[in-house]
UniProtKB/TrEMBL annotation:
Name under which the protein is recorded: Heat shock protein 70
GO annotations of cellular component type: cytoplasm; endoplasmic reticulum chaperone complex; endoplasmic reticulum lumen; membrane; nucleus
InterPro entries named among the record's database cross-references: ATPase_NBD (IPR043129), Heat_shock_70_CS (IPR018181), HSP70_peptide-bd_sf (IPR029047), Hsp_70_fam (IPR013126)
Domain of life: Eukaryota
Organism in which the protein naturally occurs: Paramecium tetraurelia
Coiled coil regions in record: 270-297, 518-545
GO MF term list: ATP binding; ATP hydrolysis activity; ATP-dependent protein folding chaperone; heat shock protein binding; protein folding chaperone
Amino acid sequence: MLFFFLGLFSITQATEELYDYPIIGIDLGTTYSSVCIFRDDKVEIIPNEYGFKSTPTVVAFNGTFLIGEEAKEQGIINPQNTFYDIKRLTGRTYLDPNVNRVKKGLPFTIMQENDKICIKVSQPRNKSNKIFNIDYIQAKVLTKLKNIASSYLGVPVKNAVISIPIGFNDIQKQATIDIAEIAGLKVVRLISEPNAAVIAYGRDYVTEKTNIFVFDFGGGTLDIAATIVTKQKFEEIDNSSEMNLGGEDFDFNVVKYLVDQIYNSTGMNLTDHKKANQALKIEAQKAKETLSSQEIAHIRISNLIEGYDFQYNLTREKFEEVNQDLFDRVISTINSTFIVSETQIEDIDEVILVGGSSRIPKVQEIVEKRFVHSKIIKDRIQDELVCIGAAILANSLTKQLEKQYRFVEIKRTAISYGVETDKEDMNIIIPRLSRYPLVLSRFYTTIEDYQTGISINIFQGESEFTEYNEKIGNFKLSGIQKATKGVPEIEITFALNQNGMLTATAFDLNTKSSSQLAIQIKNKKRLTQEDIDNLRKENEQEEKLDREKIQTISKLKKYHMQFLNDIKKSKYKYALGESQLYEIKEILNTSSKWLEDNRYKLQTTTQDFQNELQNLKNSLDKILNRQQLRDSNQDL
Ligand SMILES: Nc1ncnc2c1ncn2[C@@H]1O[C@H](COP(=O)(O)OP(=O)(O)OP(=O)(O)O)[C@@H](O)[C@H]1O
Ligand SMILES: [Mg+2]
């Protein structure tokens, strides 16, 4: 039943909670993720097992999970089981048009199960399919980052600040918190990506009050924020976000263009050829990056499909033409930032360019043309700025601070919150760009005589009609005063916490009946607490299995690499002749080759690796024993 608006509200602020050290900062990016820690009065970017500052946001499944570098590396041979771009699906429903669009460009199978988006993986070995919730897959990346940090710090890490795109609505924020929980991490705070970047930048480079425009153009989203920054304070003035605009879209456009070129020149239609598309995608991304510093990129893919070698020279001019639609969207996103705010483009002192896609020359040109009065900072920008900012905020939330960098944070909502009133109108309670945390109430009444209950639908969005906004929750208030329409007085209160997430309550002023909704708990499309607990346990179990597989593989690798050296240091140093050494080398080479072929194979299990290791040891021992026997016979 519907109801309409009567009158207005009140405001309050929430206090800050503190947590145990260490709290890590995580930038969970669409394409790359990183993890940082504040230690000894500075932020350390924690390297992954290969020494890299960022880890690909890629997960593969080949019986067990591969995460990061290894998952990305085998993507080309195993496209159907290599998952990326999942952040673009976070907190969405399967029928969301954005999901449909993203899904089309991905080589793995996205499906719906129990209202949730899942990935289907076929397992040829036991002829069955495996289905994974996408939150579970994302949790694998967070698990990896958590483990990288835990081994670096030498203590288990449990708390994190995670950065998210500005445009994430409450469901997407809650999804991020749930994903972390599956990975065994408590999110002590979410921070928007550009805000994190500007905190990091302000700390190192700002000496006096400066109006900074952050332009964070990553793999999946464009996030921008106009801020006023001093060393100790940052205030968000305005913000804007394009949720489906990032480096991946440039790659998709280029792939589409190349597929058309191949069709025109050979008549072959590769639109649905997953392996070829994956190979083209990898090369398109490389070409795009090359074109940021060069005028031409040479794309060469041998055996793109059976017997067909592909070559194409992509010019920067053609790249810009193919992606014109994306550049136009960049312009309109920048322009939308200054429509309502008091700060205008001329007031911006510095523009900081963050995110890999802001290296595209045409993007820089757009920014330079728009901000003629501002200093454009593009040379001091580290890829990890967002993560560094998250770690600085994390440090300020610890109980046992090392040395604290104190700052005041003034954040503003990116999307309006409201309720649906009569005729499906959106009645806004918290407008866009409100400072938060805050609590606001509005008063409503009934539209029918003797109505005793109401159903309250909560939406986020800017349209005056709920149809075009995102429904983020629903709850009911019963026990309303039995009276003619317009008489009951119902107070609806929206409270935004430090993460900018909503708790809604409704209260009948006359009967004192009340009802409360924390959006995150009641949304049917989301995981329940029970689902999360089960997935967390499953993840812990798999972490154990994955560790076993990785350990077996590294033992095998170690054998391949070290055995000959170890021999040279052992008592067999002089005993082994040329022919035995040759035999050993052959055995090691064959086993290395086997490992290379099987490392990423779906069918090869931990047991297979263990068997290979055991067989290798047996064969090598046999040679050594033979030698020993011969030596001892000679001694006789
Ligand atoms: N030199 C370059 N020229 C053009 N694009 C680049 C360059 N270097 C990196 N990129 C692109 O930047 C994107 C990755 O940027 P970044 O790591 O900032 O994104 P992300 O943090 O993973 O994504 P998001 O913040 O959108 O979730 C990729 O699409 C990559 O191809
Ligand atoms: Mg990013």
